[in-house]
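User: hey, got a sec? need Aminoglycoside phosphotransferase family protein folded
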Amino acid sequence: MKAVNRDYKGDDTYYDRLFSYLKTKFLTENLQLKPIRKDVFLLKSQKMTCILKGYRSEHKLKVHEAFTSTLRKEGFFHTYKFLTPPGGELLTFEGTYFACIEYISPNEIPFSYQTVQNRKEALKLLEDFHQITSHFEVRYRTLLPKAELLGKWIERYKMFINNLPTIRYFIKEPYISEMISWASWSLSHLEKNQNLLDQQSKVILHGDVAHHNILRDESGRLFLIDFDLIQIGPPAYDYLQMSNRFLPHLNWSFDRLSKYKQIRKYIKNRAFLYALAYPADIFREWNRMIREKTYFDPNKLKYVTELSIGQFHIRKQFIEQLKNILEEIQE
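Assistant: Yep! Here you go:
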């Protein structure tokens, strides 16, 4: 019997077609398929339980399969492995290539960045990941894109500006102009100092170190998952993103952020400090909400509004502190 996640809004007829296709491949009547998000499902059969994940190209699937295999060969076991599908043949359905990925039973307490211990463990996990990938990133330079932080953030900024007619319905001045000024100041100085980050030794970046891409299993071990955005670049790029995820839980305190040893080594790096001022989270969430037209969802609107306005004043104080620190460094 097919299990359906009713909170996930998708194409039910597509699920039915996919379910019928999978039954022909798994050759069992006791097949269960539960949607998790777009092109990602929990699949259970008599022989296996796995995550069924769809890729838009066979090449990308093979690269990710090879990457996770290389991670494990090099000694990083804190991630999933790809499983051989029934019959050993590639699962393809309506232009999507599906991989069977090891299912890791999650801990009853979902992982988050709310506690000091979780943040420390996440940083150590990321540090170990970078250390391992530094040994083999050269082998993936022709397979993975080069990280372009400045270019990505400029595009995100432009998109936010284009979305202002809609955003102004929900937040007013002086919030908007202040956030734009933070971004402009950050980008202009980051462009001049980006070499201070790029001159670092390269690793394979995870690219999306949100809390939902770190999973704690039933025994308490942490796993790094979802490598859709892996790129080649300096480790500081991942630490910037993780810092941005931490700061709302640290009351936007630079002092508390700098206590984490993996981040402490960057607190005199001008490019890193300029980048911390960029409101990446605000721009990302507004752009996504407008692109997906989910601003009518009260829960999503509340979250993005709180991110923008509820933390506005403490974030402004944080940026003023960054400016003071940068002045001292440059003297």
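Quick note: The CA atoms of residues 189 and 274 lie 7 Å apart. Let me know if you need anything else on Aminoglycoside phosphotransferase family protein.
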